Amino acid sequence: MTDRIVLTLNSGSSSLKFSVYDMGPEKLLLRGKLERIGSNQGHFEAAGAKEADQSVPLPDHRAALDLLWKWLDSSRVGAIAAVGHRIVQGGPLHILPEIVTPPLLDELRAITPLDPPHLPAALLALEAARKDIPQVACFDTAFHRDLPSVAQRLPLPRALTEGTGLRRYGFHGLSYEYITAELAGAAGGKLIIAHLGNGASMAAVRDGKSVDTTMGFTPAGGLVMGSRPGDLDPGVPAYLLREGKVSLENLTGFIFQECGLKGVSGVSSDLRDLLAAREKDARAQEALDLFCYQARKTLGSLVAALDGVETLVFTGGIGENAPWVRAAICEGMHHLSLRLDASRNGQNEKIISSPASRVIVRVMKTNEEIVIARHTARLVFP
């Protein structure tokens, strides 16, 4: 067995995704997830060198990690030599992957108000991990660290923004880093990546660097998402609070969990459910139309930020698997000479643009886990 085995952890508020890589030959050994954390009816599944599919009580993240470590000890994949964590928000100071230390944990606790839905769960995973194994934090904001200042700035009084960390950060950076690296030399200098999933964003990339992106201060902004509203008139939450429609203590949960596709459709936050229901349920169709309309408008704005586009990439669960959505987003982009091939798009081929299209449109599977594993191996192994 090798001593270069890396465990990657991606912590959500009620879930924990993991993978195990042998970084000697860079080989995936295991992948799985623990879901419904916080309940007595949790679920644990895994595939690879050892399979799992079981319902188990998962009262908290510590219990989930304890179960995972015990299962890994019996998996025969070898001893875990390092753990890499996806940390959604690194704040203004933490922009590159780094070894986890007590001071870093203290600093992440201090910036929890920047991302209350994600950082507490990530901190639980960091604190519950084995102390005798090196840990590496990989920040989803890192890819956007060099955004032009005009794309970083929020239109607020300087007294509130200077030296406070109140700025546009951008997220999904590990996914964008993977796609950009995979396309190195295979795409032109002007690239737009659409990471579409339950959380969705787009990024404009020029010569491998982020120029602008849709998510800003938090992962709730930008595109319409599964249960997040995307960009929202700031007068709306003020009105909801003033009229007692939502309480201040429940506002963050409302924005992250009750809006977007879920709120508009009244059916589901899962786009697959809406596609299945759209012919019989007008609300489902309206939610889908809103999702695609806002994404199409945003695509146009990012083209303006880049002064053109040479390659468009769809990735994420929706981007990789929903031909109808891709077609709806690209509709009306003929002024850019962007045209899809209906047959290629319908079959989820790697290139779905027509031969007549000046813009190459690709469908690519992202892999945030291998990015985390590579950063972890680089920092931990000599």
Please characterize this protein's 3D structure:
It is a single chain. The model has no long low-confidence stretch (mean pLDDT 94). The protein folds into two domains: 5-144, ATPase, nucleotide binding domain (Nucleotidyltransferase, domain 5), CATH 3.30.420.40; 188-363, Nucleotidyltransferase, domain 5 (2-Layer Sandwich), CATH 3.30.420. The protein is globular. The longest helix has 25 residues, at 282-306. By secondary structure, it is α/β, with parallel strands linked by helices. It has 15 helices and 13 strands. A hairpin with a 3-residue loop joins β9 and β10. The chain has an eight-stranded mixed sheet, sandwiched between helices. It has a five-stranded mixed sheet with strand order 11-10-9-12-13, with helices on both faces. 35% of the residues lie in helices and 21% in strands.
